[in-house]
Specification:
The chain has 171 residues and is of the alpha/beta class. The chain is built from 7 helices and 4 strands, in the order ααβαβαβαβαα. The chain is elongated.
Length: 171
């Protein structure tokens, strides 16, 4: 809401954050980091017009700062930032990393126009079996949940039998 009601405050805040970003990235560069990533979880929540109005300048300045020091940059965004891929590229990062909900084919077409590498788009890797069961139950896919649970049970029993057999054999 401050973007609309207090745009000068937002610009001043972003100028301050840009200076902090330079200092922090300097610490990382001085420590020998190979790539510096800027992470912005809110880019997906604003329009390209607001991005251009409030964020283009600060991000362009940060990425130029890193490039001048000889360190590549990456611009990581959370959420579906599809509508902002082009304006993000215009800030000249070396790469953009995105969440799994971005259409990579269309995003890559845009990043290729700006010679910006693109990465990401891999679903979170924390989908352990109990989570898969809950997901299927929430989708009312009882057969799928039962299949995952039964498979987990069979694998567990097989592992117990194998361990028991190894213990018996070793004695």
């Amino acid at each position: 809401m401050n973007m609309i009601r207090q745009p000068e405050y937002v610009r001043a805040l972003m100028a301050y954050c840009t200076e902090v970003g330079k200092v922090i990235s300097s610490y990382y560069m001085d420590a020998g980091m190979d790539v510096i990533a800027i992470v912005d979880p809110l880019v997906s929540q604003i329009s390209p017009r607001h991005f251009t109005q409030f964020l283009s300048g600060p991000y362009t300045e940060l990425f130029a700062y890193m490039r001048a020091r000889g360190v590549p940059s990456s611009f990581f965004v959370c959420g579906d930032a599809t509508k902002n891929i082009e304006v993000m590229c215009q800030t000249a990062p070396d790469s953009i990393a995105v969440d799994e909900n971005i259409d990579m084919v269309s995003a890559k077409a845009v990043t290729d126009e700006y010679n910006v590498a693109i990465a990401g788009n891999i679903p979170l890797q924390t989908e352990i079996a109990p989570l898969l069961i809950v997901i299927r139950l929430e989708e009312f896919n009882y057969a799928g949940a039962t299949t995952v649970a039964a498979t987990m049970l069979v694998v567990s029993f097989a592992m117990l039998l194998a361990i028991n057999a190894l213990q018996t054999w070793s004695n």
